[in-house]
Amino acid sequence: MADKLIIVESPAKANTIKKFLGGSTKVVASMGHIRDLPKSKMGIDIEHDFEPEYINIRGKGDLIKSLKKDAKQAKKIYIATDPDREGEAIAWHLAKILEDEKDKIVRVTFNEITKNAVQKAIKEPRDIDVNLVDAQQARRVLDRIVGYKISPVLWKKVRRGLSAGRVQSVAVKLIVDRENEIEKFIPEEYWNIYADLEDIKTKKEFQAHFYGKDGKKLEIYSNDEVQVILDNIKDAKYIVSEVKKGEKKRTPAPPFTTSTMQQEASRKLGFTLKKTMSIAQGLYEGVKIPEKGTVGLITYMRTDSTRISEEARNVAKTQITKLYGENYYENRYYKTKKDAQDAHEAIRPTYIDIEPDSIKDSLTKDQYKLYKLVYNRFLASQMAPAVYDTMNVNIKANAYDFKANGQVLKFKGFMTLYVEGSDKEEKEEGMLPELEENQEVKLKKLNPKQSFTEPPPRYTEASLVKALEEKGIGRPSTYSPTITTILERRYIEKEKKQLYPTELGKVVNKLLTENFTDVINVEFTAKIEDEFDEIAEGHEKWKKMIREFYGPFEEEVEKVEKELEHVEMVDEVSDVKCEKCGRMMVYKYGRYGKFLACPGYPECKNAKPIIETIDVPCPKCGATVQVRKTKRGRKYYICENNPKSCDYISWNKPKVGEEWNPEEKAEFEKENTTKKKTRKTKTKKTTKKAKISKSKTGKTTKK
Known about the structure:
The radius of gyration is 31 Å and the shape is globular. The chain is built from 17 helices and 27 strands. Helix 8 runs antiparallel to helix 12. By secondary structure, the protein is of the alpha+beta class. Strand 21 (584-590) and strand 22 form a beta hairpin. It starts with a strand and ends in a 6-residue tail after the last helix.
């Protein structure tokens, strides 16, 4: 009989904390949620004050029996699920399952899985925080109501199987709105004039850019304006009118929050949000390291706080001064944003002495990359700033002003270890020659350059997370599942990191935003998040919030259903004739996007895919190249004659004049053959298992 029973979510987490506790302690895993709303119906009793109808999750019957048995035998039960609202809700559901042992149950949390943190938590148990549970229930119930009430409208007007969601629909809206901006964008012409100059004394060359006239900034919009300026400075002397020397400091970025970790992992490592969170979960729960056993390497990975503990601050100081010297250390405190849930720290390494390279062989390639990113970011956040010497020069050419800027790094500081990534390309500036006021510099060449304004960039996973966070949509735990969901629903697709709305996504977004304006909008979604925070802090009751939401929402749904009752979605007619019955085929939307179908259904069931082509001929035979997609949505390029008379196939879009490279085909086939073999192996195993099962019953079946 165990004195203590500790319940966590995962076996990995259980294995990590076992070694910190005595032999009379048993650690078991609930395998995540144990109860949830049913999948087959809404599961919210609207008539009885929105009471959720929780059920035990299918397939967890044996686990529940085992947990009850362990609970009965223990003297005290510690529920140690994750330290956030979701973890608190799992703890509450576990307590409901173990109702018979409720007097023994306490709640413990730790932000990192270390010996000190775990033992301290066991010594300081508390009750389950009902306010946090209620905040999670409010989110779950509200999202279930929105999904179950709005999705059927999509089924009737677009196709069955589609879904709408409070946060996912707003994320799709942001991507569609950005695409509309790009399509409507009209480029505007503008010009720059660059002067290649030489310092007469040192013969060093540098470049200055046109600024304006008589000290005032002047924009240039046409070639005619450029010619006027060039005529006016045709024989001008270039005189240095002002030299400003200074020093510039660049400070490090704060330690990671969930959002910034996802963004940096996307920029620097090319990881998807889902992959980042999966790897981070493993690093948090524990990795087996020789001579150390299973070790939790990072703190809890769902947080929007940049705060770190004093203990972590001290070990960072020791490590920085040991590796780089005292002048590289600077004690830093970072301001956490106003609406952050500051319950636990920023993401950081749990043991600063476990350097990434020292355990590289114990980690997978991706674990090593992410752990190194977290480790270096944290250490850099407590380092001294980088220092640059700067020089800003104004140069007169008659009445016109040219400016030149230069800088040189004189102390690397934190940049020795880590530099934050950026979605924009950063241009390095060199130092200018030692120029003096009133000296003349020699003109080598004037370079007028025509440019055009560019549309806003498409979102990437990283920039979409940043936008969601800035607009107050969702919380650290929701970014990854939100973007994963809309990709899986095929409302958006990803190509070279950029997110595009699909035709299906545009249709769904149009229907939702035009008919559910009070729900599918940024302001409402952000306001709801604030209300969840109020519930978590005990300032608002969750059922009161749902009541206030439901009345107006139900009216809106009924109004939309009535308005759309006699409205038929008109299918867009194509220019393709049905070869079976002669009707002009129409565009439809299926699971994998847009396709052609005969409008004569069900009499004529003809349907075919829309074949996308590119304007570059096949590098091997010169025929048309088609664009297709794998089942996972990845694009590839294939000759229209493949496999009849040409075997061209490639992941990469061919270029004009490019020669056929058979290695591309080999790479494509290698990936797809591997997947097929894996599926085949699984099938054989399943068949063998089925035969064994039948033999146990004593029955024989002819094959």
